[in-house]
Amino acid sequence: MASNLDFSPPEVPEPTFLENLLRYGLFLGAIFQLICVLAIIIPIPKSYEVETEPSEPRSAEVTRKTKATVPSANKRPKKETKKKR
Questions:
Q1: Per-residue DSSP letters for 57-85?
Q2: pTM for the full model?
Q3: What is the pLDDT of residues 26-78, one digit of tens each?
Q4: What long-range pairs does 49-57 form, CB within 8 A, spacing at least 24?
Q5: Are 37 and 30 in contact (CB under 8 A)?
Q6: Over the stretch 7-18, which tens digit does the pLDDT of each residue have?
Q7: 12, 15, 48, 65: which could join 19 in a potential S-S bond, CB 3.0 to 4.6 Å?
Q8: Rounded to an integer, what distance in angstroms lies between the CA atom of residue 6 and that of residue 22?
Q9: 42: which DSSP letter?
């Protein structure tokens, strides 16, 4: 009975090129996702900000933009009614 047991490892086929490509692509995608999540969680101080003073102060007239009157979507032009005879 003991002579009938086969303890050799099962035969596993060699992975193909596409299977390897898929496996490494999934690893790279997982690493990219971890980096993105860590970038959201860990705040990075912005020490490179440089405060610059405007060389020429702008007047209120330049910064103020003119707004064109836009009819609101709720207001529809009144339809002309036909005159009764």
A1: PPPHHHHPPPPPP---SS--PPPPPPPP-
A2: 0.41
A3: 999 999 999 999 999 998 877 765 666 555 555 555 555 545 555 555 666 66
A4: none
A5: no
A6: 888 898 999 999
A7: 15
A8: 33
A9: S
